Amino acid sequence: MLTEAISVSRRWLEVAASFLYPEICQSCEIESATASQGYVCEKCRATVEFIKPPYCQRCGAPFAGEITSPFICGLCRHSELYFSHARGVVPFEGVVRDTLLKYKYNRALWIEPFFAELVQNHAGPRLRDEGWDLIVPVPLHPRKRAEREFNQAERLGRHLSRAAGVPMEKRALRRILPTRTQTRLSASERAENVRKAFAFKGDPARIQDRRIVLFDDVLTTGATASACARVLLQAGAREVCAWTLARGLLH
Ligand SMILES: [Zn+2]
Ligand SMILES: [Zn+2]
C-alpha cells in the first residue's frame, strides 16, 4: 500500500519534473533519458566501463596489462596508507566525470539516480557479502557544505547503505580544516594538505572494534580516505576500508 503510494507519487514527480527539465540526456544532450535514469541515456550508459582486475590490492588502481598474481602498486609501496584497501566502481572519466561534476558543482541532483544505480548494483552486493558494520561518509567542511547545500558522499552513501544492508553513521567524522582544492596537487602535497583536516566527533562506543566502510564520491591518491581512516582507527575502529563511486587516475 505504502510502496504503491510512493510509486504513484514518484510517477507524479517524474511528470512534474519533465515540465521543468526536458527529458534530454545530461551527458550527450542529444538522446532522450528519463528521470528514473537520472537523465543519462542508454547510449551514454553503454560507454561506462567498470573497474575490474587486475588492480592494486591496496588502493584499487586498475592496471592496464596482464597480471594474474596479486600485486601492490608503486605508489602504495612508498606511502603510508591507513585504510586496509580502497575500491571504486567506475573510472572517473567520460560520462561519469561529466555528470558527477554537474551533480556536485551545479547542484544537478536529478542526475543522482544514475550514480545511485551504479553504487547499489556494483558496490552493494560486495559489501553485503563481506559483513561490514558501518558506512561513514567523508564529510565536507561546514562552510563548503553550506555553499553546496549537500554532501555528495552522504547522499550516495545512503543508497549504498540501503543496498548493502549496512547502517550509515554520518556524524562520526568532522572536517575541521577547510582544505585547498586538491586537483592541482601531487600525491605527497595532497597527503600533507589533508593530514590534520579531520577529527572524530561521534560516540566512540559506536565504532569500537567495528569494521568500517569509508565512503566518498571520488578517490584519486587516497590521501583524504587515508586521513579519515587514521582518525577512525585512532578512535577505536578495528578495520577501515574505502569505497568510492569513481576512481580518479593520476596521469
Ligand atoms: Zn547521452
Ligand atoms: Zn596501490
List key phrases describing it.
2 domains; globular; 251 residues; Rossmann fold; binds zinc ion; single chain; 14% strand; two-stranded antiparallel ribbon; 11 helices; four-stranded parallel β-sheet; alpha/beta
Give a verbal description of the structure:
The structure is a single chain. The protein is globular, with a radius of gyration of 18 Å. The protein has 11 helices and 6 strands. It is 41% helix and 14% strand. The chain is of the alpha/beta class. It has helices at 2-20, 42-46, 74-77, 94-105, 112-122, 124-130, 142-148, 152-164, 187-194, 204-207, 223-234; strands spanning 86-91, 134-137, 173-175, 198-200, 211-219, 239-247. Helix 5 (112-122) packs across helix 8, helix 6 crosses helix 8 and helix 9 runs parallel beside helix 11. One zinc ion is lined by residues 25, 27-28, 31, 41, 43-44. One zinc ion binds at residues 25, 27-28, 31, 41, 43-44.
In brief:
This protein has helices at residues 2-20, 42-46, 74-77, 94-105, 112-122, 124-130, 142-148, 152-164, 187-194, 204-207, 223-234, and strands spanning 86-91, 134-137, 173-175, 198-200, 211-219, 239-247. The protein is α/β, with parallel strands linked by helices and 251 residues long. The strands form two sheets. Strands 1-6-5-2 form a four-stranded parallel sheet, with helices on both faces.
